[in-house]
Amino acid sequence: MTQYLPKLEIRHLAMLVAIDKATTLAEAALELNITPSALTHRLREAERRATLPLVRRGGRPRLTEAGQRLLLGAQRCLAELEVAEREARTAGSAARHIVRLGASTLCGYDWLPALLRHFDVAQPSIDIEVVIDVSLDPVSALRDRRIDVAVMPGRARGRDVTALRLFQDELVALVPLAHPKARRRYLDVSDLTSEVYVTDTTMQETGREYERLFEPAGLRPERVLRAGHMEAVIALVRAGLGLTVTTRTGAAPFVSGGGLKVVSLTAAGQYLTWYAHVRTVRGRTSPAREVADALSQVVRDRRA
Questions:
Q1: Which residue, of 52, 86, 120, is where some domain finishes?
Q2: pLDDT above 70 for 244
């Protein structure tokens, strides 16, 4: 049987990733450290090899449907190559292992200093790197090998992933201190949807308010103010421009600054159980599993 040889090279795959992120071809060329004319030449070469148009011309560059399909493969391929190169560089008895950790957006990192101190003393051959841009779907990033440990509320399904229970936190409303609802013992979903709702993202993330509150009630906020970053969300809520939902742990540093009140959600409360997920490795341990086990121990020690 003849082995299939891909028609596109690594430089073509990197080009598709750069074009997808950029607003102009010139910006994509700058990201690739090549000239715009060289990028145009590379794009034409890729389309000739693939015998398909990959980018729609005119205005902001957009990948065609064929380009989008190739983009998914390119992202996985480049991620796998990055992991392989890193593992190759660290091979040997004195190897240092870099374990990349990603967490959902509502996860507080109060445990991170203790985790880093633990490995400095107990296992200095393991370095921990926090990856921020996977927060909307850390388990997919784990499966794609963009990270090695995924911290998120709820257990992911599938035998390819192993979950370790970490801690429980409460989903709460954050309300301006002067707001009438700040005096309430708890708020229902309708109390949130009738107000201006301030959020960092409107994407439905596991364990967050859209999945836990709005979807089951069949309600949506009448007006949403998307701030893009939690610090910006807090500033808008503190200024009296709306309400938001976060975790009790995540809210604590901001409440201490004044002007805000934490209010429980629903009479029964809304609680999240957080887990550390790693890729399942049968018959042996791994640096990622060591980090997940240590994180579980650090969390238990902090809450003891």
A1: 86
A2: yes
